[in-house]
Amino acid sequence: MNNNPYASFPGVTFEEISFLRQMTTGLTESQNQTFLNLYYGRRKSPQDILIFTLIGFIGIAGVQRFVVGQIGMGIIYVFTGGFCLIGTIIDLINHKSLANEYNQKMAYESIEIARMGV
Fold first, then answer.
1. Are 58 and 64 in contact, with CB atoms under 8 Å apart?
2. Mean pLDDT of the chain
3. CB atoms within 10 A of CB 114
4. Of 2, 20, 33, 90, which has the maximum CB count within 10 A?
5. Residue 42 has pLDDT above 70, yes or no
6. Number of domains within the chain
7. What are the annotated GO cellular component locations (predicted)?
8. Taking Cα atoms as reference points, which of 115, 105, 1, 117 lies closest to residue 43?
9. What is the pTM of this model?
């Protein structure tokens, strides 16, 4: 087995790899494989968030918020034009933070499912 299965994730950062290694410590082989499958399917790469944020400049603001599950903020972005583009610019700068926050949430959900043995 590959020593670092997380390195194959698109756009993965050192911090994310460290976080995932720390989270999965103590999992059995089958739990770890279940976690990897679940997390890989749910994870968003920072580049994807960046692309969705850039869409806000050409017409539909807030797509990045819908993608990371922040439906309320996405609706606000749509109706305010991304807070008159200021929110979109802030999200453009913080796209990695948006992705990391979302990915950590998905990692917690995935590890709980993996521990339950589903």
1. no
2. 91
3. 22
4. 20
5. yes
6. 1
7. membrane
8. 105
9. 0.85
Cα distance between residue 93 and residue 105, in whole Å: 21
Scored b (16 or more CB within 10 A) or e, 37-75 reads: ebbeeebbebebbbebbeebeeeebbbbbbbbebeebbe
DSSP 3: S
Give residues with Cβ within 8 angstroms of 93, minimum separation 6: none
- How far, in Å, CA of 68 to CA of 52, rounded? 10
In a domain, 1, yes or no: no
The amino acid occupying position 11 is G
Residue 117 lies in a domain: no
Q: Cβ atoms within 10 A of the Cβ of 106, count?
A: 19
Residue range of the domain that includes 76: 45-110
In whole angstroms, what is the distance from residue 65 CA to residue 72 CA? Answer: 8
Residue 94 and residue 9: Cα distance in Å, rounded? 20
Is 99 part of a structural domain of the chain? yes
CA distance 48 to 26: 31
